[in-house]
Design brief:
Keywords: Nitrogen fixation, Nucleotide-binding, Phosphoprotein, Transcription, Transcription regulation. The protein is α+β, with helices and mostly antiparallel strands. The protein contains two helices and six strands. It is elongated and about 60 Å long.
Length: 113
Amino acid sequence: MIKKIEAIIKPFKLDEVKEALQEIGLQGITVTEVKGFGRQKGHTELYRGAEYVVDFLPKVKIELVCSEDLVERAVEIIMNTARTGRIGDGKIFVIPVENAIRIRTGESGTEAL
């Protein structure tokens, strides 16, 4: 069984999370710079004397696909490494993956990871 883990975290935590995941043998992650809000709901800023609302905050989305036996450990690592204890630390989603195929070789399933 293959699972996809998507984690949305604070940008300054990316390197720490990446290194921790590599230490358990997970390689091959995709990182996207994203913007969003949850309970944080943004904040107001002053720019050239005018006040404006910044309601989409910069975040980083990490995506990785791994075998089911590594999911629990990977989620634990992301949680512990990305946590600051403040609002806006992010979310983790675990999604089932029907199949994975390595384009170069045609391998599928866990062999493609």
